[in-house]
Amino acid sequence: MFFLVQSVCWSQHKNEIAATLTDATKEIYIKQKLTYYNSSNDGLSVIYLNDWNHAYSNKKTALAKRFAEEFKRSLHLAKDRERGYTKITSIVGQDYQGLHWERLGNKDILRVELAEALDPGESVQLFLTYTIRLPHSKFTTYGFKSNGEYYLKDWYLTPAIYDGEWKLYDNMDLDDQYTEPINTLIDFTFPSKLFLASNYDEDGLVDFTEGQYVKLMANNRTNCKLVLSRTKRFTKHVTQFLTVTTDLESNNFDEISQGISINKVASFLDENLGRYPHPNLLVSELDYNKTPLYGINQLPSFIRPYEKQFQFEMKFLKTAIHSFLQETLYLDTRRERWVNDAIGTYLMIRYVEDYYPNQKLAGKLSKLWGFKNFHMAKMDFNEQYALLSMLSARKNIDQALTTPNDSLIKFNRKIANSYKAGLGMSYLSTYLGGEKIDSSIISFYKSHSLNPRVNATDFKNEINTFSNKDIDWFFDEYVATRKKIDFKIKKLKKTEDSITFTIKNKRQTNVPISLFGLQKDSVISHYWFSDIDTSKTFTIPRNSEDRLVLNYDQKIPEFNQRDNWKTLNGFFSSNKKLKFQFFKDTEDPYYNQVFYVPIANFNVYDGITPGLRLYNKPFLERPFNYDIAPTYSFLERTLVGKANFSYRKYHGKSGLYVSNYSLSGSTSHFQVNSRFSTLTPAVSFGWRPNDLISNRRQSLLFRFRNVFRNIDENVAQQIDTDPDYSVLNLRYRDVDNNILNYTSWFLDAQHSSDFTKLAFELEYRKLFESNRQINFRLYAGKFLRNKTDSDFFSFALDRPTDYLFDLPYLGRSEDSGIYSQQIIIAEGGFKSQLENPFANDWIATTNASTNIWKWVEAYGDLGYIKNRGENARFVYDSGVRLNLVTDYFELYFPVYSNRGWEIAQQNYGERIRFIVTLSPRTLIGLFTRQWF
């Protein structure tokens, strides 16, 4: 009787499943009857089934590879008991004969050969018996948790979609399984003392000796979500619009108030999207954590600056919209995710405009003394969407909205593209009129919800139906490309009754641009201009405007708004005011911002050097940056510090994508009363592949390092090189940064009046399937000419002299004491301090290590060094490495070397070496690499 209920007029697949979850083994035993209906125009001899639970089975699946690209080691290092897999017992046809099936390599897809071809409009029954071993939830949140709870999604076999070709998608933790809606009935048996919540209808929950039983039912749904918790934390809210099952948490926000807010959100969705067609909408904390509202909302709950009601409603709205659309609009979200993103983010923007128009991005912080003068404190809540989407564009890592979901870098997939899509709808709404976009969304949802063949073209056609203007630019330029929007006003002329001006399209992105006429801070005129390929001149009536401003309401996601306005009151009044701002802030287009922040550096000779850093870089990247950081050395009683002026030019998405031009200088002390200063002009170029998910990068650096030294008389006697020198340096570098296979090599050439040298370095790290890691490094260097008599410019085995002052030594001239034990892996890369460690002719060394247990490794170094007039000398050392954080904090304990058994010699503590990184920017890179 259940399968007779149809909410759509076409034939559908049907599922009847009997599933039993065993808590002890974390396995589900499944018997499944799948009725597959061929809705295509082709005869089918094979059927493909999605088996996404099998993505956790080994280290070669698409999921494991994606994790490696995002520097997540959890699945690769997982124990067998933590992995998930599917064990197929049998697949039988409707004639009860076994069918041949096979798994497509390491894909999460099963290929089933039918006994005979399935004609269009016909159906076939498959009987499947299999067991799924659930994965630990630490990988993707799906599976079993250590506390005995479960969260299941995409857990049983579903048919892949055929629309002329099979859509075979692997599980890559993108929540975008593509399968047609199915009428499903599940007889589910699960352990006692667990509470069940589901997006399906529940019927007949029964307790019995061995556990619990429930019947789960759904029409026109793609997948069954199950949450099995140890406590009864889900509550059901019945509104006149839809029924919600939720466990969303909100500190100190009582249940009655939550119910009022849920009803408010449900009413908004019903009015602005449409009636939810299913009996129940599951809105879970787990789902929110998968796709949270990024921004200030990510702060710990006890310091979030929003009112409890607003905080809860935004959290509930974000999760409800995501589930609402996922359960009703059956788009191919692997290929056309942007449609759901556009609707969802637009509705969130609308919700705040309707109910919280004065809400600030910084919330209560915007009123605090010391913070209220920040531009960020003045930003509206909805401005965060432009801010975060532009973060990607300014870094030149933005991707077109039509980019497949599995080709998006994490930041774009989680944040930037979703926000850009919603901003695009807001842009269209402003251009066409809000009621037209609102009506098109409602009409699109009404016409295509539950339709298994809906696509982005349907969405475009619906918007075109309600539009009275040409909007091809939106789909052709804004959606389908990564072109930037950037306009400016130039050549302004005015008369008593008119204003003539030229709008320049700096990026040749042919989209409409808005112009506002302002008198003081009041808008007195508003225009739209379009079809501006490069530049175009317009004349408008003159009222009493004193300024013309492009995109004044910031509804257009424009790349650069700093040149959007022109004053009508003369040249000098158009100059932007200078604004000094404590700490970094968001970009204020109407001021020249100078940021300042106190800093403190350290080295042995200057001690702790406090100072002030002055710079102009806001949160978003900009082409020209300066960074001036003077500090005071109390030990030397003088100023030290550094400064840098740089210009960055981004090019295309791939190939040569960036050029950098810079002039930098620094001054500090390298010994008591001995100062060094550097002045370095440089230019560099960067290349990357078309696939932005790839971590491979190539660079070419040209720089001319000028070093000036003022040396104390007592120290000067120990130095037999000229105090001042210049080195022309050319370096090509190729890095492929992957957590499973890391490869990096560079070729370095240096030339000065006293020497010319070449050096080559190769680094390779591999994490094997056995979870054993091997690290290998090769370094080779050769002097082409060397007129010096000292070892100041020589190759070094363990502690280079660093005559270019590149390396962050805490005590660069120390030859005893704790600071002399700091090691930076460069040149020879040895850890033991051997006698005669320098080479003024050539050097060739290898460094290797492998793990013994977790972060404990054994290392060994081998090499030859040669000085002029001497035979080459063989050198080696070995020991134990504590690899706590690779390249950031490591300890080396020498054991055996050319010096013999070092561990048995006196003063062994002086032989221990350490790597330490104090730079916050470098440490932050450990976390941001997962996103960019």
Fold and architecture overview:
- By secondary structure, this protein is α+β, with helices and mostly antiparallel strands.
- 17% of the residues lie in helices and 39% in strands.
- It has an 18-stranded mixed beta sheet that branches. Strands 4-7-2-1-13-16-15 form a 7-stranded mixed beta sheet, with no helix packed on it.
- A hairpin with an 8-residue loop joins strand 30 (607-615) and strand 31.
- The longest helix is centred in the middle third of the chain and has 23 residues, at 410-432.
- It is globular.
- The chain starts with 12 loop residues before the first strand and ends with a helix.
- The relative contact order is 0.05.
- Residues 1-10 have low confidence and may be disordered.
Structural class: alpha+beta
Query: Which term fits the overall shape?
Result: globular
Q: Biggest β-sheet, characterized?
A: 18 strands, mixed
Mean pLDDT: 92
Gyration radius, rounded? 33 Å
Note the beta-strand portion: 35-45%
Tell me roughly what share of residues is in helical segments.
Answer: 10-25%
Pick out the low-confidence regions.
Answer: 1-10
* Helical run tally: 14
Chain oligomer state: single chain
Kindly state the number of beta strands. Answer: 47
Report how far apart the termini are. 52 Å
